[in-house]
Amino acid sequence: MLILTTVLTTGALTLTACGSRDDDSKSSGGGDTQTVVIGVDAPLTGDLSALGLGIKNSADLAVKTANADKTVPGIKFELQALDDQAQPSVGQQNAQKFIGNKDLLGVVGPLNSGVSQSMQKPLNDANLTQVSPANTGTELTQGNNWKTGDKKRPFKTYFRTATTDAIQGAFAAKYLYDNAKVKDVYLIDDQKPYGAGLAASFKATFTELGGKIVGTDHINPDDRDFNSVVTKVKRSGAKAVYYGGEYPAGAPLSQQLKDSVQIPLMGGDGMYSADFISLNKKAEGDIATSVGKPVEELDSAKKFIADYKTAGYKDAYEAYGGGTYDATWSIIEAVKAVVADNDGKLPDDARIQVLEAMSQVKFDGVTGPVSFDEYGDTTNTMMTAYQVTSGKWASKLSEAVN
Description:
This protein has 12 helices and 15 strands. The chain is α/β, with parallel strands linked by helices. A 7-stranded mixed beta sheet has the order 8-7-9-10-11-14-15, with helices on both faces. Strand 10 (about 265), helix 9 and strand 11 form a beta-alpha-beta unit. The longest helix is centred in the N-terminal third of the chain and has 21 residues, at about 50-70.
């Protein structure tokens, strides 16, 4: 299998949004340059916009780097970023917009597993490659019956650089039981695909280890008053709360919890954001897991971090910056392979060819080695546990999970 290695350099700093064009190529420097658009779908407004803007900016940096380096001779990459507002219905509309842009050969995103569920089928029907840096819902790649061992890939066009909730939930349970020495947990989820799936995975491993789930509950992620569930937690005698959900609800839940009982709240990568701390005056001691190893601790990410800073993006790259850069670069590498096999030009069936090339993509990325298995899942199963320490997320344990 060909190993494609990239060197990161800083490119232009301005985001370019592109729609459809009528011509197939345009002249640049005396030669024909073809345009390839990469779509980005993420929540660019609303409660989760901190994560979404980090995704957009990181994809932008990858596109501009590829252009500056002339990674694919004869190809100019452009970005089309659409706001899904973390809503499945909007994500589905965005999928149709991406499909309608004939220059668009791949989509990066979305953030939310529930949004992805609305996008997978139309993108699959259009043979349009999708790579999410953030989706962790196991069923997205392995089908609804994965828990029984009946794993079937539902959509050939879907890939991700984030590992699954089956891995994340198990890692979280093991960390809380073995490292934090917590044996009694109250389990809460937000009833969304991501949160419910993560909570179920956590529960399965935690009880298998010998831990006890002393109570369970569900919340509405749009609520901000959680005193009724906090009362139940207090009565249960729990030593920690595990929350399957995202930081906009997780932050006030944690704060109200600590107003009543001094126990930590733990969650997944949907909690791992600086905004969780800024929205929560009592976040100290809370725990979150996130996919991959902290980019700040990776030699492979030093150039990405430096280039992101130089680019002057006003929003942080957040939890998914490195994974987003790698997701975008995987599409760029697939395009590179297709163009190289077609005498330096895009073929007429470029979407299908890029999709076929994706299964062979392999390179050293920001987050480490990047490649995909037979389900479209990342082969990088590194997970990290973080704890809020002195007002900041501090990494506590990183390990690859089998």
